[in-house]
Design brief:
CATH superfamily of the largest domain: NAD(P)-binding Rossmann-like Domain
CATH topology of the largest domain: Rossmann fold
Largest sheet: 6 strands, parallel
Number of domains: 2
Radius of gyration: 19 Å
Strand order of the largest sheet: 1-11-8-7-5-6
Distance between the termini: 53 Å
CATH class of the largest domain: Alpha Beta
Structural class: alpha/beta
Number of strands: 11
Number of helices: 10
Strand content: 15-25%
């Protein structure tokens, strides 16, 4: 039994709900001022179940905050060239402020080519090279949604990052790499990035005041790998199947929560931690994109 008094649980659902309330209020203000209501376009290719679920959540979130949205679905047999033409149409649509192509894509379609075809000012996932690079500028544009969500959790829980030793486990373009840049540039932290080639991972994680893990390996981080009083952010979400679970499966993080939590000052659960913040950040980016294009 985990003693919940020894740590603060970082509630991503609660913070995401607060952000949605703030966005809803801003949308109402935009309407009252006669200004443009944000419009998000979503492209889904194929019938992947997880992708469909993610898209459904994004559509629901748009409805909750009062955004307009356009949903575009295509078979997984669509050619790359045809998909690029549809992206061109959305790029040229002056009413669309934000635009995402749900990943993953079928193997015959280049993710990089598709991503780079989206106009940076509409790229509310923050995946284009221009938006990725803007992280280290004094005026970042649209930042990658999941890392943006993590930074927002630090802010709203008053977790100090300046001068802290931060270790990011996972160096992906989606989470680890941009988050490490944000922590350095905006969080003023001292950052170490570890990945699958890192030798003696525990040596690094034990030194972390703030430990962020985003690799998709359930239970990778055990209690002996964590410093007393550390802040632990678990971005990993893996579906683990088994007869012991009520629904036949459970979502597991990269951190052994039960064992690690008592050593922490703050920790995120899985699910309910970072996950809800990704969609909240997507909404924030869409609102920002609208206001940048319609001052």
């Amino acid at each position: 039994m985990v003693d919940e008094k020894t740590y603060t649980l970082i509630d991503g659902r609660k913070i995401a709900a607060q952000i949605k309330e703030e966005i809803t209020q801003r949308v109402q203000e935009l309407k009252q001022e006669g200004k443009k209501v944000p419009h998000l376009a979503i492209i889904l290719v194929g019938d992947d179940g997880a992708s469909q679920t993610y898209v459904d959540h994004k559509v629901k979130a748009c409805k909750e905050v009062g955004f307009h949205y356009t949903m575009m679905r295509f078979a997984d047999t669509i050619s790359e060239e045809k998909l690029l033409k549809h992206i061109d149409q959305v790029n040229k649509d002056s009413d669309v402020d934000g635009f995402i192509v749900q990943l993953p894509l079928p193997p015959h379609i280049s993710v990089e080519r598709i991503t780079e075809h989206i106009r940076p000012e509409k790229d509310v996932d923050g995946f284009t090279n221009r938006n990725f690079g803007s992280i280290v500028s004094k005026n970042p544009l649209l930042m990658p949604a999941t890392p943006f969500g993590v930074m927002e959790l630090f802010k709203r829980y008053n977790i100090e990052t300046e001068g802290k030793s931060c270790v990011v486990v996972g160096a992906s373009r989606l989470v680890g790499a941009p988050l490490s840049m944000m922590l350095i540039e905006h969080g003023r932290a001292t950052v170490t990035v570890c990945h699958k080639y890192t030798v003696n991972l525990a040596h690094f994680t034990r030194q972390a005041d703030i430990l962020v893990v985003a690799v998709g390996k359930p239970g990778l981080i055990t209690a002996d790998m964590v410093k007393e009083g550390a802040v632990v952010i678990d971005v990993g979400t893996t579906r683990v199947e088994g007869p012991q679970f009520k629904n036949g499966y459970a979502l597991k993080g990269d951190v052994d929560f039960t064992a690690v939590a008592p050593k922490c000052s703050f920790i995120t659960p899985v699910p309910g931690g970072v996950g809800p913040m990704t969609i909240a950040s997507l909404l924030l980016n869409t609102l920002r994109a609208t206001e940048l294009r319609n001052p």
